[in-house]
Amino acid sequence: AWYSVCWSAELSLFVAVAYTGTGNRVMTSPDGITWTARTSAADNSWCSVCWSAELSLFVAVAYTGTGNRVMTSPDGITWTARTSAADNAWRAVCWSPELSLFVAVALSGTGNHVMTSPDGITWTARTSAADNSWRAVCWSPELSLFVAVAHTGTGNRVMTSPDGITWTARTSAADNSWRAVCWSPELSLFVAVAHTGTGNRVMTSPDGITWTARTSAADNAWRAVCWSPEL
Q1: Closest Cα to residue 77, out of 21, 4, 2, 8?
Q2: Across the strands, what pairs with 148?
């Protein structure tokens, strides 16, 4: 059950991580066509992977595991288990080049649904704006802002942070099950998509604070969104 994939331009390599499998919850590919199984650091339920060009490091976070819900790799092949800040259900991780910081968000926990790391190895728990089930996080270099979205909460399914440490609750456009968020530098716009809702499974924001409901193409269970600068 492959959950996340990312690209390293520096290594010319795709890396994907999985929620299930035995000793092979990572796979890599130089072209997206031919994939090679790799041994994950543990048979945890890996949910998200990202690449730091500045550190030459992949970081993945997991939904399950005991004291090892992070793993890192310099090449996508050899993975090392790392101690997560807490055994929360970590769902997403992203990297800020400008802050030299990884930020991960979780579905579970008490006051600590966020963790940060400058190197992928040492992780520090942070107080989330609310104990919502946070599903996705992204970084806007232009706004110097992290934005996270959640699938639970009442009127507060967005939170923002300029540093990954201090988080502020924001009013989502609707209490939908928000699953993914991305940033477009060219449009100066965040876009989030949802798993639930009626005619409003998209929301947009120019600043991460004020969100506007948009009519989705269909009331499908949207899980991911990305931006193409070229198109």
Answers
A1: 8
A2: 137, 159
In terms of Cβ atoms closer than 10 Å to its own Cβ (0-12, 13-18, 19+), residue 161 is buried
What is the model's pLDDT at position 123?
A: 98
Query: Distance (Å, rounded) from C-alpha 148 to C-alpha 104?
Result: 10
What's the gap between Cα 14 and its chain centre?
Answer: 16
Sheet holding 145-150, edge to edge: 134-140, 145-150, 158-161, 168-170
Q: Six-digit token pair at 192?
A: 């989030």
Task: Give yes or no for a contact between 66 and 44, defined as CB atoms under 8 angstroms apart.
Answer: no
Distance CA 39, CA 26 (A): 6
Q: What is the DSSP letter of 40?
A: -
Q: Which residue has the tokens 């579970």?
A: 108
**Nearest Cα residue to 129 out of 154, 95, 99:** 154
Q: Which residue type does 23 have?
A: G
* pLDDT, mean of each 10-residue run, the chain (231 residues): 97 98 97 98 98 98 97 98 97 98 96 97 97 98 98 97 98 97 98 97 98 97 96 96
CA 205 – CA 72 distance, rounded (Å): 32
Residue 52 CA to residue 43 CA, distance in Å, equals: 23
Q: Encoding tokens for residue 126?
A: 């942070």
Model-level pTM greater than 0.90?
yes
